[in-house]
Design brief:
The complex is a heterodimer.
Chain A (H helix, E strand, L loop, with lengths): L2 E2 L10 H26 L14 H10 L5 E5 L3 H6 L4 H8 L23 E5 L5 H15 L5 E6 L6 H12 L4 E7 L2 E2 L2 E2 L21 E5 L3 H16 L5 E6 L17 H9 L2 H11 L4 H24 L23
Helix pairs in contact in A: 1-2, 1-9, 1-10, 2-7, 4-10, 5-6
Chain B lengths: L1 E4 H15 L3 E5 L15 H5 L4 E3 L4 H12 L4 E8 L7 H8 L2 H4 L9 E6 L14 H5 L5 E3 L4 H13 L4 E6 L6 E4 L12 E4 L4 E5 L3 H14 L4 E5 L2 E3 L3 H11 L2 E8 L4 H12 L9 E5 L8 H7 L3 H14 L1
Parallel strand pairs in B: 2-3, 2-4, 4-5, 5-7, 6-7, 10-11, 10-13, 13-14
Antiparallel strand pairs in B: 1-8, 6-12, 9-11
Helix pairs in contact in B: 1-7, 3-4, 8-12
The chains are: A alpha/beta, B alpha/beta.
């Protein structure tokens, strides 16, 4: 068992890619902050799970993946959806239950999906999508394409049976799938360490499935990008799956209803110092990217969020006729003649 | 025309479709090298090879997850869950994932997949390997459910299920695996959602499914001996449900008996009875009677399992008794 520490070596990543990752993170942050504001105005209903603080993982993977690759995400999936190029307005309109939402209002925050963008779904039952992602990888292998399925999940999923079933079968069938554990240290409200037999929830399980233990700093976009690139290339070459533990931290609570008060103040403060957006901004400036370039990205992102908000707010309510559409492939919900 | 067992008909139906469409793959525990623990997939590994016919670990969530992920990306998987009781360990993938995904994604994702499973009692396996889960499956929006009762229907409904663009659960009556009947040699493709009238009589209508179909037919023979002539309908498909055929067969006799293997509560017969109560009330000539397994887990011993499952004697006696009362 070895631990791969990709380190902050950045020389191999093109500046364009790094700027694209930065832009993506800023957009994710901007959209999710707006989504939170809209909750407070009761314009977004139900629940929602924000990735604020964790954006580097989705953004860097998004940059490393190819258009034909498959993303499988969780109920905390807004960032992963944007990472595949899904328009902000469609995401926000879906959160607001509008007809112009990504799913016409039928899915909501926890089920964002856009097959056209390779976003194969956001799954709201913890761990359920790991076996589904392996199925997509099986299909790619069977069809002889070089597509890779990337499956994002939280640390809590490492204690559910589907995680173990999926890892085992993916290795046995040598499938092109990359499993990415976004370890934010809390399984909903409970510290993952207090309910898990091993210290590193994903990485310490890897050896049981004949996989390398890989831990990356999930708040370092360069490190995530390099690790993603290696894992994707390995999968594409036929070498089988990877399991990556990306350590990170969510700035807020588990969901809309959770202020996250169970976390020690000094722990939160320490992680806020490692916020991937300002730290990456500083690194880009250090490496010679112009302040104006980054400022332009921030301004454009803010404008894009405003525009998306306007489109989503102006969306009409879904037609009630949609309730009985699309259970079946013929578009109907008919169960009798 | 050749005589086939019900179990051989399963492999025959799958093979017929696999020859036609290379996107069809088969996976499950022991389905490849062993030909299935019930020998329902014998010969498929030899004919189609190990990339299309795959043994899996005992990982029901992984089996059905793999089928779902493959179905949404261009394949048409046939997955086996060995005993339908085992659906309880992967019901999330069936009920939350497979059944809901098309709807939740506003029609973006199609899941053309088949789950085949040995279902129901009659083999003395005890409560965790014998139950009829038709009533679980039928209750889930987004899942089609068929339960063939003859080798010919098995070939045709398996083929129809594989060709269908939606997820279909094919319930194989374990108690019928050894049953034999003639099956035409040509390609057979049936239609989902079609019931079949097997026998006609004016006194009452019996609806049966799966293992209960031959028992209802045997009961009809006995009743004929005492001058009672009944119609027997093989329901064949629970979702979609052929209410046109079923309601028509009921209205011709005015009396209805359902013969259900499932435990009493929320069986498929209850749904049909409620439809008749709503839509054909004026055609009723007597009470609607459900003949079911009692609301118990299925016991193992010969004497107990036989006492639990409806058999021809109980069906015939129940029908005769109720018709006598008028």
């Amino acid at each position: 068992m070895t631990t791969t520490d990709a380190g902050p070596g950045t020389s191999s990543i093109e500046e364009m890619t790094r700027i694209a990752i930065y832009r993506q993170m800023v957009q994710m942050r901007g959209l999710e902050k707006r989504a939170h504001d809209l909750f407070l105005q009761n314009l977004v209903k139900g629940t929602s799970h924000l990735s604020i603080g964790q954006e580097a993982i989705a953004a860097a993977f998004g940059a490393a993946m190819r258009p034909g690759d498959y993303t499988f995400a969780t109920y905390r999936g807004h960032a992963h959806t944007l990472a595949r190029g899904v328009p902000m307005a469609e995401v926000l309109a879906e959160l607001m239950g509008k007809a112009n939402g990504l799913l016409g209002g039928k899915g909501g925050s926890m089920h964002l999906t856009s097959v056209d963008h390779g976003m194969m779904g956001s799954y709201a039952i913890v761990g359920a999508h790991l076996p589904i992602a392996l199925g997509a990888a099986w299909s790619a292998q069977y069809r002889g394409t070089d597509q890779v399925a990337v499956c994002f999940f939280g640390d809590g999923a490492t204690n559910i049976g589907a995680f173990h079933e999926a890892l085992n079968l993916a290795v046995v069938w040598k499938l092109p799938v990359v499993f990415v554990c976004e370890n934010n240290a809390y399984m909903e409200y409970t510290p993952i360490a207090t309910v898990t037999a091993v210290a590193r929830p994903a990485a310490d399980r890897a050896s049981a499935y004949n996989l390398q233990s890989i831990v990356v700093d999930g708040n370092d976009p360069d490190e995530v990008y390099q690790t993603a690139t290696t894992a994707l290339a390995s999968a594409r070459s036929g070498a089988g799956p990877s399991l990556i533990q990306a350590d990170t931290y969510r700035h807020g609570g588990h969901s809309r209803a959770d202020p996250g008060k169970y976390r020690p103040a000094e722990e939160v403060a320490a992680w806020l110092q490692r916020d991937p957006i300002p730290t990456y901004r500083a690194r880009l400036l250090d490496s010679g990217v112009a302040e104006q370039t980054l400022k332009d990205i921030e301004d454009q992102s803010a404008a894009a969020v405003e525009e998306a908000t306007s489109i989503a707010r102006n969306g009409i309510q879904p037609d009630a006729a949609a309730v009985t559409k699309d259970v079946w492939a013929d578009g109907s919900a008919t169960w009798r003649n | 025309m050749a005589e086939l067992t019900y179990r051989d008909a399963i492999a025959r139906g799958i093979a017929q479709e696999m020859r036609r469409d290379p996107s069809i793959v088969l996976l499950g525990e022991d389905v490849a090298a062993a030909g299935g623990v019930f020998k329902t997939t014998v010969g498929l590994l030899d004919e189609f090879g190990p990339t299309r016919v795959r043994d899996t670990p005992i990982s029901e969530q992984a089996i059905l997850g793999a089928a779902m992920g493959a179905a949404m990306t261009g394949l048409r998987p046939v997955a086996e869950i060995m005993f339908s009781d085992f659906f309880a360990v992967c019901w999330d993938i069936v009920a939350n994932q497979i059944a809901k995904t098309r709807y939740m994604t506003n029609g973006q994702i199609s899941l053309p997949l088949v789950i085949k499973s040995g279902n129901g009692g009659g083999l003395r396996f005890g409560a965790q390997h014998s139950q009829d889960i038709a009533n679980w499956a039928m209750a889930i929006p987004g899942l089609k459910v068929v339960a063939p009762s003859t080798p010919r229907d098995m070939v045709g409904l398996m083929a129809a299920a594989i060709r269908d663009p939606d997820p279909v659960l094919v319930l194989e009556a374990k108690g019928l695996y050894a049953a034999r009947a003639d099956v035409p040699d040509n390609e057979i493709v049936d239609e989902l959602g079609s019931a079949r009238v097997l026998r006609e009589g004016d006194d009452a209508t019996l609806l049966a499914l799966g293992l209960m179909v031959p028992r209802a037919l045997a009961a009809a023979d006995r009743l004929a001996g005492s001058g009672i002539r009944v119609t027997v309908v093989d329901v064949r498909s629970l979702v979609p449900l052929d209410t046109a055929t079923i309601l028509d067969a009921f209205s011709r006799t005015g009396r209805l008996f359902t013969v259900e293997e499932n435990p009493r509560l929320c069986g498929w017969g209850a749904e049909i009875v409620s439809i008749i109560a709503e839509e054909r009330f004026t055609d009723l000539d007597g009470p609607l009677i459900r003949i079911t397994t009692p609301h118990v887990p299925l016991p193992a011993a010969d004497a107990l399992e036989d006492a639990a499952l409806p058999d021809a004697d109980r069906i015939a006696e129940t029908v005769a008794e109720h018709l006598e009362r008028g």
